[in-house]
Amino acid sequence: MISITEWQKIGVGITGFGAFFILLGALLYFDSVLLAFGNLLFLTGLTLIIGLRKTLSFFFQWHKLKGTSFFLGGVAVVLLRWPLLGMFLETYGFFSLFRGFFPVAFGFLGNAFNIPFLSELYRRFQGSSSMV
């Protein structure tokens, strides 16, 4: 059984609120205050879940530096009240940071639920990730 600390439980809640505020900010025509608050909550919650050292080592790996710069640059642009441009930068940075995780997630969903579309998507991602 995996032991979860109280800080990690709080981090999951804060991350959930961050995702909620980001979604709400996007639905309300890219409200910069909601997006900025959601970004800060999301990053704070992520830090509480996995720890400060692991968060910094994840974001500042040499091969993820481009994705990190776009993601954190997008957060900074949203904080400077340019929400549309900031969310585009964040989205590109997010996909760049987590592109190695997407084939694993789609493969799990495709195998666990036996959904044909996700299995096919996993096969396509799996074939393209070997070229990176």
Automatic annotation (TrEMBL):
One Pfam family matching this protein: Got1
Transmembrane segments: 12-30, 36-56, 68-89, 101-122
Recorded superkingdom: Eukaryota
Protein location: Golgi apparatus membrane
GO BP, sorted A to Z: endoplasmic reticulum to Golgi vesicle-mediated transport; retrograde transport, endosome to Golgi
Keywords: Golgi apparatus, Membrane, Transmembrane, Transmembrane helix
Topology of the protein relative to the lipid bilayer: Multi-pass membrane protein
InterPro entries on file: Got1, Vesicle_transpt_Got1/SFT2
GO cellular component, one term: cytosol
Family designation: Belongs to the GOT1 family.
Its biological purpose: May be involved in fusion of ER-derived transport vesicles with the Golgi complex.
PANTHER family (alphabetical): CGI-141-RELATED/LIPASE CONTAINING PROTEIN (PTHR21493), VESICLE TRANSPORT PROTEIN GOT1A (PTHR21493:SF245)
Protein name: Golgi transport 1A
Annotated organism of origin: Myotis myotis (Greater mouse-eared bat)
